[in-house]
Structures are given as structure tokens and as C-alpha cells.
Amino acid sequence: MQELTHYIGGAHVKGTSGRFADVYNPATGEVQAKVPLANGEEMAGAVAIAAEAQVGWAATNPQRRARVLMAFVGLLNRDMDRLAEALSREHGKTIPDAKGDVQRGLEVVEYCIGAPELLKGDYTDAAGLGIDMYSMRQALGVTAGITPFNFPAMIPMWMFAPAIACGNAFILKPSERDPSVPLMLAELLEEAGLPKGIIQVVNGDKEAVDAILQDDVIQSVGFVGSTPIAEYIYATGCANGKRVQCFGGAKNHMIIMPDADMDQAADALVGAGFGAAGERCMAISVAVPVGEETADRLIEALVPKIEKLKVGPYTAGDDVDYGPVVTSAAKANIERLVQTGIDQGANLVVDGRNFNLQGYEDGFFVGPHLFDNVTPDMDIYKYEIFGPVLSTVRAGSYEEALKLAMDHEYGNGTAIFTRDGDAARDFASRVNVGMIGINVPIPVPLAYHTFGGWKKSVFGDLNQHGPDAFKFYTRTKTVTARWPSGIKQGGEFNFKPMD
After folding, report:
1. Which amino acids are annotated catalytic?
2. 307-350, pLDDT tens digit by residue?
3. CA distances for 180 relative to 23, 86, 153, 157, 486, angstroms
4. Three-state DSSP class for 439?
5. What sections of 39-194 are H helices per DSSP?
6. 473-483, pLDDT tens digit by residue?
7. What residue ranges define each of the domains in the chain, with the CATH number in brackets?
């Protein structure tokens, strides 16, 4: 049985708390490793090392910091296959999907290579008589991130890349369900030239999270996960004087207008709803066709596509559409919500409850499910399922469809499929959701824009990556300077006699 470690001070360090969590292979259901769960003392030790290292790193000019990230990008590309295999082995997603996980994180690192430009301040000459004013963006100090299981490469890089580019040290508390890739990323950063102690990976559970929230040295905390935990981390972190950004749950709607290309819309729904077994905060989990005829055409197009989905382990090849969910508890929760949908009167059009994969009977596989005639009062509509379950809510009009997306408590992402530019512009303008797709099912912005939802999908006032990240990981200092004039009035052309 492999025993994983923390990564502290540039070395793999065994846990000392005596507590461990099991790391499963989701495809087989077998425990493949144990990961140590840090206590407060271990966290404090990592923070102290980070604080000492950060002073010199902040004094390093931004261009030299950017060169480390540039080298890191090269190493990510070099080790892409190795990272993807490790990610798939612990998470369960397919190899192409795992490579996408790494790639979308890598793109944020590439953006952060522009730190010298992004960290430039402002300058005003002669703001007053003999007075100049200028602003500087300076590092916070020690920062921290608490990241989820569903993107064990991408989301850590979304956090630590801008934090490090800004001159901070970073404490990463990854998910204990799939911790190997974050440990590998820390190794690669130091191979790229990052000083020891600037990136620290401390594995743990709630005890480690609370240690982060209560540590006076840690200046900021980022989090991605469920809304209840996001609310807890945001409230506790802010109460302790930290800068906090938390991203919570989602229930993403896709509106299908009568004029939409139905095959295109159905393909988009299948990919966005069932990719990564639905374990994405930007997954489309609610299809909203406008009009009964549109709904009937959509269901007719969806059913054969969903029934043809290939579900299996990542080792079965790149033509596997999605793999298992991450734990047996996640599988049980999905199955419970599916049964609730049936009990509350939804029509289960594609039934994946009896899915069974020969040779992988103990794996955490969940077959694809498609519900029709779902209503907003049903649990499968109200709650985030985080599984391969697509619900169809029929809307009588565009306004009714828009209202569904606007009235839901979550506001992470949404999409509209239509050929009508006026409808698309109106939807993008009016809907109270943070990320909008127009004929794009999963509208995750590229690295040079920002990622973030609205309503109960986010807590904090700045988004992830893009320009907001450089604001989040720095403080602005403004200097007002006056220098007494030492300039003589006029020139002197004659030699002075000696005294």
C-alpha cells in the first residue's frame, strides 16, 4: 500500500498526525494509497517555512518570477502523459479529459508569465506643486488554496500560478480524494526554479482547513467546492481578517430555442451533461427546450446519443466517453436523487440504474440518466446532483425559460442555443448568471478573462484567473512624494575667488 506525503520545504514529508484517508481507484473500488491528514501543528510548520521563503521571492523582480513559470509550462508539456495517467487513476476521468484538466491550468500559467506587465502600477507627474504620486502592487505574503477533487490539476494552477507570479508563497490543501497530481505539480515547480518553500502541499481534511482559516500569517484563502462549505470558509476567513474568494455549487441551464440546430444542441447537451460523469461545476444539468414541439424534437435527438455513450475505465481507451464517479458515497447520492426524481413524478426516459460493467462490478460507475417533464419543485432540479443525470424542464416561452435560469439560487453558468441574434443578445444582457454561452454549452472563459458565477455560486468580489487574480493576490500601495528643489536659479560663468 502506497503511503503518500505532504510536500514541505522542497521535500516529501511524512505525516505525523497519525491520521490517514483512503485514496481509491474509482474504476475498481480498491484502495490504492493512503494520504496523511495534517493537524494544526503540521500546517503551522508549513506556513512558517513559507513565510520565511516568501520575503526573498517577493524581492525577486517579476520578470525573473515569470521565467520560472515559463520553465514550468515546458515541464507540464513534457510530463503531460504522466500527469494525465496519475490524474485518471485517482479521479476516474478519461485520459483525454485528464489532459484537458492539465491544459486548462497550463493556460493560466501561460497568462501569468505576463506578470511584469500585469503588476505595473500607475504614475502621476506633478499632481501638485512639486508633488508626484504613484501606486505599486505588492504581494500579500503567504496565501492558501483549498481545491476540489474534480479538477486536481486545473484549479490548483488557477490559484497558485497568479499567487506565485505576484510574489506570494502558497499553501495548497488539495482534495484528499486525488492528491497525487498536486504533489507532482509542486515537484515540477521547483524543478523549474521556484525556491524551496514557496509552494507547500499540505494534505488534510477539515482540521487542516480550520488551521488555514485560523492562521494569522495566511493573508488570503481561495476555495472551490460545495456552497455550504464555501459559505463556511468565506464567513470564517473574513471574520479572521483574510481576503477570501469562494466558489460554490451550480445548476446550469441550457435554453434551446425553436430555431436551434437540434442535432448541434443535442450533441452539446450530451457532452456538457455527461462528460467527466457530470462531475463539473460547469456541467449542463438542466435542458430547457422552449415549446412542446421543440421539447419533443430534443428528446428524440437525445435518447439515441445518450444510449450510445461508452462508460468505462480510462484504461479502456480514448473512445470511452466517461468513467466512474469519484467515490461510492458520490454514487449512492446520485442514485438516491434519481430515485427521488422518479418518486416526485419526473419521467425517466433513459434509465441508467441497472448499469453494470463486467469485470468492474466494485467500481463507482453510474449509467447515464435522462429525465423529462421535470418541474422546479423537484429535488433533481433544485439540488446539484454532480453526476451523469440530465433533467429536461419544458418551457412554454422564452420568458419562462429565462425566468427558470434567473430564479434558481445558483448562477454559475448558462447557455442558449439559437440562430436568433436578438434573442441571444437579450439573454446575455438580462440573465443573472456569471458565465454565458451562446451556442457554446460550457462557457468557461479563457485564461485572460475571469471565471466566476453569481448568486450562491460565489462568495467574494473578485473572480478567478485573468486580471482579477492579480488584484486578489496583491495589495495596492499609493505613494505621495515631494522633494525640495535643489536647482540653482540661473548659471554662474565666472571663477569664484578663493577665500
Report:
1. 281
2. 999 999 999 999 999 999 999 999 999 999 999 999 999 999 99
3. 10, 7, 10, 14, 62
4. coil
5. 40-59, 62-78, 80-91, 95-112, 115-118, 154-165, 180-191
6. 999 999 999 98
7. 2-248+457-481 (3.40.605.10), 252-438 (3.40.309.10)
